[in-house]
From TrEMBL:
Pfam families: AIRS, AIRS_C. ATP binds at residues 123-124, 150, 218. One of its GO terms (molecular function) is thiamine-phosphate kinase activity. Reaction mechanism of ThiL seems to utilize a direct, inline transfer of the gamma-phosphate of ATP to TMP rather than a phosphorylated enzyme intermediate. Mg(2+) 4 binds at residues 31, 46, 76. It comes from Magnetospirillum sulfuroxidans. Keywords: ATP-binding, Kinase, Magnesium, Metal-binding, Nucleotide-binding, Thiamine biosynthesis, Transferase. This is Thiamine-monophosphate kinase. Residues 30-142 form the PurM-like N-terminal domain. Residues 154-310 form the PurM-like C-terminal domain. Coiled coil: none annotated. Mg(2+) 1 binds at residues 48, 124.
């Protein structure tokens, strides 16, 4: 492909190679793909869209935009305990987009297709007079009947969280010109966490038979745990002191307490929150050691409803920011 991109060259030259490992994708030359499911497994499907100016900045590197798109979707699959195997891409590219940008985008897609052993099995390519708009559908599989659901938590279960919380939301604030007193290394780390989330693809499947419920944290810990608690018919209580913070996030919040709200409700974490019977604690600690992904017990499920955040004195805190909403009704209680 040289000069101005052509729709069919783009598909044949840049996207088709990413389907090579999947015969049912017909090298992206047919109307649809065919999918077989391994015996004893169920397909898990998820779709997340990303829009320039809403989920990422239009001038973010094209390869990282593509990889973030893959990763936010694989995060949902991991939260269900699923092993990812395929994705479908719907891309609306702004008119006049450059061939070089598309090549970088496809390179990024290819990097993550390889890294996560998945295939691009189809999609659609259109132009838009609006901002770059991307949607990915991701497919994974789990042993039939064993997927982790939001509804499986029981009273007394501990709440666990992978990785560290708030890095990405702080990275976004740093890019927006806030958090100006960060040291450059911390700033780069936080921005990297924003640009390139790390879906917990190995952890998810390992949690089957260990966790009672799971979800990924995309909107903000407090809001998202609220969804899990509601679906399980329970309340969630988390302890501020036990939230896993990176050195960079800890430093940022030490200097300025108002960033705490960002950690509790800033979103873009793409970490997995799961619940488990306290009897599973040893196994979970072993999983963390084996996988190299930190797992922290941050609270417990109790009878009741809602999410309470306990401060360092054990008192319920006011939470200024519970999580991201694309739309909200004025006057509605969050
Ligand atoms: N436009 C839509 N049409 C159908 N289902 C949707 C739509 N938007 C969201 N959903 C469904 O609503 C549920 C919650 O979505 P969402 O909050 O985006 O979850 P997540 O944060 O895990 O991506 C999911 O089951 C999702 O498939
Ligand atoms: C430029 C920019 N501004 C703001 C945000 C913050 N933000 C946008 S959407 C979102 C929540 C997650 O996106 P969503 O579409 O709700 O994904 P899902 O919850 O469906 O996985 C957050 C925290 C961002 N990521 N980038
Ligand atoms: Mg979603
Ligand atoms: Mg999710
Ligand atoms: Mg959301």
């Amino acid at each position: 492909m040289s000069g101005a991109p052509d729709e069919f060259d783009l598909i044949a030259q840049l996207f088709a190679p990413l389907s090579a490992s999947y015969p049912g994708a017909f090298n992206l030359t047919d109307d649809a793909a065919l999918m077989d499911v391994p015996p004893g497994r169920q397909v898990v499907l998820t779709m997340d869209a990303m829009v320039a100016g809403v989920h990422f900045f239009a001038d973010d590197p094209a390869d990282l935009i593509a990889r973030k798109l893959v990763r936010v979707n694989l995060s949902d699959l991991a939260a269900k305990g699923a092993v990812p195997f395929a994705v479908m891409l719907a891309a609306a590219f702004p008119q006049g987009i450059e061939a070089e940008w598309l090549r970088a985008f496809a390179d990024g897609l290819g990097q993550d297709v390889a890294e996560f052993s998945i295939a691009l099995i189809g999609g659609d390519t259109v132009s838009t007079p609006g901002p770059l708009t991307l949607s990915l559908t991701a497919f994974g599989h789990v042993p039939t009947g064993r997927a982790l659901l939001r509804s499986g938590a029981r009273a007394g279960d501990l709440i666990w969280l992978s990785g560290s919380l708030g890095d990405s939301a702080l990275g976004l604030r740093a890019r927006q010109g806030q958090l100006t007193d960060l040291n450059p290394l911390h700033r780069d780390f936080l921005i990297h966490r924003y640009l390139l989330p790390q879906p917990r693809v190995a952890l998810g499947p390992a949690l089957i038979g260990v966790a009672s419920a799971g979800m990924d944290i995309s909107d903000g810990l407090v809001q998202d745990l609220g969804h899990l608690a509601r679906q399980s018919g329970l309340a969630a209580e988390i302890r501020l002191a036990d939230l896993p913070l990176s050195v960079a996030a800890r430093t940022a919040t030490e200097n300025n307490n108002s960033w705490l709200a960002c950690i509790l409700g800033g979103g873009d974490d793409y970490e997995i929150a799961f619940t488990a019977d306290p009897a599973q604690t040893q196994r979970i600690r072993q999983l963390a050691d084996d996988s190299g992904v930190a797992l922290s017990a941050i609270g417990q499920m109790t009878a009741g409803q809602g999410v309470a955040v306990m401060d360092r004195q054990g008192k319920a805190m006011e939470v200024a920011q519970r999580g991201w909403r694309h739309f909200s009704n004025a006057g509605e209680q969050p």
